[in-house]
Amino acid sequence: MAKASKDEVERLREQNESLKAQLAEAQETLRAIREGEVDALVVSGPGGDQVYSLAGTDSIYRVIVETMREAAITLTLEGTILYCNAQFGLLVKRSMEQLVGHRVHAFVDPDSRAAADQLLTCGPERAMKRRLLLRDSENRCVPVHVAAHLLDQPDGPSVCVVAADLTELESSTEVIQRLRAQQEALQAANQELAATEERMRVQNEELAASRLGLDRARARYQDLFETAPDGYVGTDAEGIIQEVNQAAARLFGRAAGDLVGNPLSALVPRGEREGYLELLGSMSAGQIARPGWEVCLRSAEGTTFWAAITAAASRDEEGNIVGLRWLVRDVSQTRKTEQALRESESQLRAVFLASQDALMISSDDGICVGANPAAERIFGRPVSEIIGTHAATHLEPGFDWAGTFTALKGEACSQGEVRLVRKDGTSIVTEFSAVADILPGRHLTVIRDISGRKRAEEALRDLNTQLERKVGERTAELASVIEKLQAEAAQRNQAAAQIRRTNRVLRMLGDCNEAVVRIEDQQQLMHEICRIAVEVGGYRMAWVGMAQDDPDRTIRPVASFGFEAGYLDSARVSWGDHERGRGPTGTAIRTGQIQIGSDFQRDGNLAPWREEALARGYRCSIALPIRQDQAVAGALTIYGSEPEVFDETQVEVLKELAEDLALGLDALRTRTALRESRDRLRALAGELTLAEHRERRRVAGVLHDHLQQLLVAGKFRLAVLIRHGDPVVEETAKELEKLLDGAIQASRSVTAELRPPILQEGGLAAGLQWLVRWMAEKHGLSVDLAVQPDCSPAAEDIRLLLFEAVRELLFNVVKHSGAKSATVCLRQLEGDLVHIVVSDRGRGFDSNALKPAGLAGGFGLFSIRERLELVGGQIQIDSTPGQGSRFSITAPLGKRVPAADAPVRPAARVEPAGVARSSAAPVPRARIRVMLADDHAVVRQGLARLLQAEPDLEVVGEAADGGQALALARDLQPDVILMDVSMPGISGIEATRLICGAVPGVRVLGLSMSEEKDRADAMLAAGACAYLSKSGVVEDLVAAIRSCMVGRRGH
After folding, report:
1. Which whole number is the average pLDDT over 481-491?
2. One domain, residues 19 and 167
3. Per-residue 3-state assignment (H helix, E strand, C coil) for 554-608
4. 900 is in which domain, residue-wise?
5. Share of the chain above pLDDT 90, in %
6. Are 589 and 554 in contact (CB under 8 A)?
């Protein structure tokens, strides 16, 4: 039993190996079929062997796969099932819908999924075989033997898997019986295959030859399809585009790939779409379309074109229509050509009918086959009688028609004259032009009646004969007249040339006179005169030489123009009485007379310069003396390119030119002297302005630094007398105090008018601001001031001049215009200029009627104008009676006029500082300790006596300038400092600022002769507690000192 089992196992193993071999053979057969190595299959059946060719391979393959017992699956490279046969569904007990589209791993036992992944990596060269376990819908294992092969298809690679169910094989008897049956069937099949193998080999050779021919035919068809000049479009029965060639793609302006899949109707304009759909319906119904149907189509750019379309239906083996073929040919140009031909034919027909010449069309044998209406007039008979006749019947006998026609055929055209016989027997002379073969076998002849022209020519010949005879008679008469006219013309030409030369020299004289007026430099003037003589006067060269007072009496060239080329260097012209001095230039300077060298070639006096002059084209010369201060200083020499060109007229003009040059040189010397005088005068005017200012400043200094200080000191001392107690003395002192106040006020007013301090300290803008306030206070004039910052002139004389000018103009407003207000505008112009405008809306005046005599003296308008002009400025006056006045002043911003040093201000007497006038004993702190700071000793003394008379005040120190005041303040620590605003060195304002910062407890009270608000504001801003005028009430000063100490140290 064991032996039997062993034999059975051995047999089953052999059968298993046999089945594996058969399965491998079947798989190889399937591979060969898939890769096209099998051209036909022979299938045995009840009806015998049937051969299936490649035409039906797809159906056969599907039948084989669907009917085979093995499971067949097509997978993507990721394992997704693309296709499976029914046998696979039976294996896993699932429907097709549950399989296709799902991954094959879902139906593989987890233990076999790694093997399944290996199957997906198989290659195209050989199949990969594995044993797998599948899971059916009931989760039962199904053993299978699978073989996988990679398929490289057009739509992408995929994996073909064939699976054989091993369930029965592995189950004993049923498997063995099935294997035996299969073995027997396979053996029978092998026998049949062996029998048909030879037949298939022969058939394969025949199919290979057929396939080669088919491939060649397909290649030729593809080349024709792609390179065809006409467009080819293949659609299905519904008109959807399946294929297009390159010609069709170009016609529609799109890529072939963009057209495929779109309806052909989208390329047909709406107006033509109905006809297209009707054609499509008839073609789909099996009707035969008419060839050459023309329709308007649209390209991708939206443009339309005409196309001739021929359509045909494609049918399958059963005759059913499966597609349509459309041949598209662009006929747009053809239609245009046909239209142009029709238009051309219409035009030619119109010309044919309207021509005034006879147009006749004849055949090769000379028979007239066509004529236009003009032929009736020329031939004298109806067109119907002309057509059908031979051309020779209408010509005068003797005309060589045959020779003319032969020449026409040989040369394609012919021309000539012929006499034509009309129907009434008369003959006319005609001119003909013939053109051969305008159409095959047709020739055109144009005939024109020239009888009238011939008669006119004959009459013209007769007339010419008569005219020739008369011309001969008149020629003799005209010969003498021509001689006279030629002589007169020569005279006129000479006169015209003379006039041109005269006009040229006159124009030269005018240009030279203009240059004399315009040019302000002697060297430039002489060079310009020489240039004008050459360029305008037309001379060869001109130069100016000045006589030198040296032993050789040389002539030095100072200016030249023209073709000189070193001539003057080699000429060595002299004005001495020797060979080099006897030429025109030297003689003209020596004698003072005009000298002419008529011809360098013949004149002996010109021999020393002949070779050099002729080499440069000089043929003659003229030398004109130039006089300066009644003596000959040089000469203007001009060279001509022709001999003897200096006639009497030219000599007179050139003489005037030389005189004008001498006059211009004298005028330039005069202008130079005048300019130098003006510069000196301007400098003197600036010096005068500064001298006037210095004098004003000196007088103002005397008034301010001496007289006013003495008056103030006297006032302080009178205050002591007033407190003496004697009524008589007190009354007298008060009267003197009033007189002193008046004197101080008058002195201060004169000082401010003579020298406004703010003008020196703040510049022109600040000075004008002070002037505006001063005019309002003194004269009640309201002035609107507009000032641009940083536009004060740098030069002191100009700054003072502008200030005085504005003040004078404002005075004129007060005195003459009657206006209560005025406007002053100060700004800077381009070119470093300062511009001031003073305007009012008063009475105004006639500015053209101003006379210097009426405004002489003082600092009036003409004085302002003169002084401004001397410093490079100007004033413009615009005034109209009843409409006000406007004065515009312009002056240089940075110009400086040299001025003498300002007088040194007398130095104030400086007394020893730092010594208190009180006793050495300690001072009770109840008294107010006062320090005096003033550069005038007399003022300090007056203040000291005044303050010492007060029991609660004590003067502890005196300082003569700001520096001493700062040092004493630090040493003495006073309670109050009486600080003069104007002091040399450190001013009172600066000293106040420094003291308030260094000695915080001190109180500063500012004193000044000036009552200007600007100074008071500056002093208070520096830290002063009050600002008083020295000319004010003395009691106010004492009260101010005490008020400064209110609330401090028990006061």
Report:
1. 79
2. yes
3. EEEEEEEEECCCCHHHHHCCECCCCHHHCCHHHHHHHHCCCEEECCCCCCHHHHH
4. 756-906
5. 5
6. no
Q: What are phi and psi of 609, to 5 degrees?
A: -115, 5
pLDDT of residue 840: 92
Q: d(Cα 255, Cα 784) in Å, to the nearest integer?
A: 86
CA distance 457 to 791: 99
855: buried, middle or exposed (CB in 10 Å: 19+, 13-18, 0-12)? Answer: middle
Please check whether residues 296 and 373 belong to one and the same domain: no
The reply to whether 326 and 361 lie within a common domain is no
Tens of pLDDT, residues 969-1027: 888 889 999 998 888 788 888 889 898 888 888 889 988 876 677 778 888 888 898 88
Domain CATH number, residue 821: 3.30.565.10
C-alpha–C-alpha distance, residues 557 and 555, integer Å: 6
Region 503-510 average pLDDT: 78
The whole-angstrom separation of Cα 477 and Cα 461 is 25
Read off the DSSP letter of residue 814. I
Average pLDDT over residues 109-126: 82
- HEC string of 691-753? HHHHHHHHHHHHHHHHHHHHHHHHHHHHHHHHCCCCHHHHHHHHHHHHHHHHHHHHHHHHHHH
Structural domain count of the chain = 6
Same domain, 965 and 886: no
What distance lies between CA 78 and its chain's CA centroid? 64
By CB atoms closer than 10 A (0-12, 13-18, 19+), residue 869 is middle
pLDDT at 915 over 80: no
**In a domain? residue 492:** no
> What Cα–Cα distance (Å) separates residue 879 from each residue in 189, 849, 883, 887?
139, 11, 7, 8
Task: With H, G, I as helix, E, B as strand and everything else as coil, classify residue 310.
Answer: strand
- In which residue are the tokens 């024709």 written? 224
Contacts 24+ apart (CB under 8 A), 178-185: 179/15, 179/16, 179/18, 179/19, 180/15, 182/19, 182/22, 183/15, 183/18, 183/19, 183/22
Q: What is the pLDDT of residues 327-352, one digit of tens each?
A: 888 787 888 887 888 887 787 777 77
Dihedral sign, Cα of residue 508, residue 511, residue 516, residue 517: positive
What whole-number distance in Å separates Cα of residue 71 and Cα of residue 27? 12
For residues 807 and 886, membership in a common domain is answered with yes
Residue 460 forms part of a structural domain: no
The encoded tokens of residue 353 equal 């009918």
